[in-house]
Amino acid sequence: MTDGSSTSIARVAAANPASDLDGIKKMVDPGPPYMGNCYQIKDPASCQMMPRSLGMALDAMEGDHGIVSFFGPKFVKAYLALKRMEYRWFLDHVIDWEFEEYSWCL
């Protein structure tokens, strides 16, 4: 998957199974399964949350040593630079929801 025909999307899609295999190799204990209703957790602050934005996800990717070692630091640095640039472009634009929600006051 590292030849010139590979796209960055395909490489990133490989991260999930790669992290699974890494956990298996290192015999990481995933802990007990949660058997309750996740929507009724008494203390949500006690749960590890998924990133709530692309910016937060990119920061998490940058700090994930398993991802960096799997893809290599050069690829991760280039990928993060590209995605952060795309994210800044996205943030500079008004999306349909924002326009519909706030245009009445213009």
By DSSP, the count of extended strands is 0
- Straight-line distance between termini: 51 Å
**Rg of Cα set:** 19 Å
Strand content: under 5%
Q: Strand pairing plus helix content: what structural class? A: mainly alpha
**Tally of separate helices:** 6
The biggest beta sheet reads: none
Order of helices and strands: HHHHHH
- Taking all residues together, what is the mean pLDDT? 83
Low-confidence segments: none
Q: Would you write up a description of this structure?
A:
1% of the residues are buried. Helices cover 56% and strands 0% of the residues. Helix 2 (15-25) crosses helix 4, helix 3 packs antiparallel against helix 5 and helix 4 (65-71) packs across helix 5. The protein contains 6 helices and no strands. The protein has one domain (8-105). The protein is an all-alpha fold and 106 residues long. The mean pLDDT is 83.
Task: List the defining traits of the structure above.
106 residues; mainly alpha; 6 helices; flat
